[in-house]
Write a structure and sequence with these properties.
The protein is mainly alpha-helical. It contains 5 helices and no strands. Helix 3 packs antiparallel against helix 4.
Length: 372
């Protein structure tokens, strides 16, 4: 093939050419120069093939300071090394942070679940307390009603006891008056007895003519004696009644004093029961507010638990994506990193790529190795 045809093939990117360099003339010199161009192109193509296979530790030979292609290819290799190393470091940090976040989210979700369970138990206990408090409040209201009625009954009993005391005082005053009257009757009977005795003496002096008058005087004397005896018996009965009235008055006074104490105690008890009833109502209202607050807290805790679970799932997905990215970068061999530049081995990197998305390193064949 002549140099024109070879030049056209090289212009098309085909360096698989044979050039005859045996001539010693100017054409031979031109052929040898073309051969150097082809050999340099083959060397650079081979370097690019190595780079394309994932080995970024390779370098492209630079023929001179004017070799723009060699210089820029080496700059590209250095830039790719920097980019992939930065991606590797970022992926490591993202993976570590995602794992920590996933673990924290899992702990938070577990804690929120346990907290929700504890809140449910607390709510059940508060429901029981609320029922008992409502029952206590109802009983306190009933007790308050009973205390009010007892207070009214005790006040009525005290009033009637005071009426009885006044009646007994009236009886005592009447008995004193009766005693005075009976003493007057006793004095009258005594005077009558004396007058009857004098009449009997005068009748005896009158002899036969005063006999009838003596009989009358005797009867009057007997009546006076009977009146005196009756007055004496009545006095004794009245004195006995007076003693009993005094004893009854003393007992009534003590009873009235006791009733007064009972009324005071009942009033204090009624006031305390009323305070208990009011406190029970307020406590019942407060417990209802606590129940509402617990319901709100429970809803927030459940929301937090769901958010924590979602966060844990997102963190796991983020970690998987980071490992996937690390697996993709692990396909490349970087400068200064050796065979294990990444934390993933080649097997782990392959496992990190999801099924159906794994790809073998791209093999770019620009030349036939057997012909070099």
């Amino acid at each position: 093939m002549n140099l024109v045809g070879i030049s056209e093939k090289i212009a098309m990117g085909d360096v698989d050419v044979d050039i005859d360099t045996s001539k010693a003339d100017e054409i031979g010199d031109l052929s040898r120069a073309f051969m150097k161009v082809v050999e340099n192109a083959r060397i650079q193509a081979r370097s690019v093939e190595i780079i394309a296979s994932g080995d970024l530790t390779a370098s492209v030979p630079v023929r001179s300071e004017a070799d723009l292609l060699g210089l820029k290819l080496n700059e590209l290799i250095d830039a790719q090394n920097d980019v992939f190393q930065s991606i590797t470091m970022a992926a490591d940090q993202v993976s570590t942070g995602a794992e920590q976040l996933s673990l924290s989210s899992a702990h938070l979700a577990q804690g929120a679940t346990e907290q929700a369970s504890a809140l449910e138990e607390l709510a059940a206990s508060i429901d029981d307390v609320a029922n008992k408090t409502n029952h206590n409040a109802e009983n306190a209201v009933k007790a308050n009603d009973l205390s009010s009625r007892v207070k009214a009954y005790a006040a009525e009993s005290n009033r009637r006891m005071q009426d009885m005391l006044r009646a007994m005082d009236d009886i005592s005053s009447s008995s004193d008056n009766i005693s005075k009257i009976i003493k007057v009757i006793d004095d009258i009977a005594f005077q009558t007895n004396i007058l009857a005795l004098n009449a009997a003496v005068e009748a005896a002096r009158a002899g036969q003519h005063g006999k009838g008058f003596a009989v009358v005087a005797e009867e009057v004397r007997n009546l006076a004696a009977r009146s005196a005896s009756a007055a004496k018996e009545t006095t004794e009965l009245i004195d006995n009644s007076m003693r009993k009235v005094d004893a009854g008055t003393k007992i009534a006074d003590e009873t009235a004093e006791s009733l007064g104490s009972i009324v005071g105690t009942v009033e204090e008890t009624a006031a305390l029961v009323e305070q208990i009833a009011d406190a029970s109502k307020e406590q019942s209202h407060s417990i209802e507010q606590i129940k509402m607050t617990l319901s709100q807290v429970s809803a927030v805790v459940q929301t937090n638990s769901a958010s924590a679970q979602e966060g844990a799932a997102s963190s796991e997905e983020l970690a998987a994506q980071a490992n996937l990215m690390k697996g993709q970068v692990a396909r490349f061999k970087l400068k200064g990193a050796g065979e294990s530049t990444l934390n993933l081995s080649q097997h782990e990197a392959a496992q990190a790529i999801p099924t159906g998305r794994r790809r073998e390193p791209v093999q770019i064949s620009l030349v036939d190795d057997d012909k070099y």
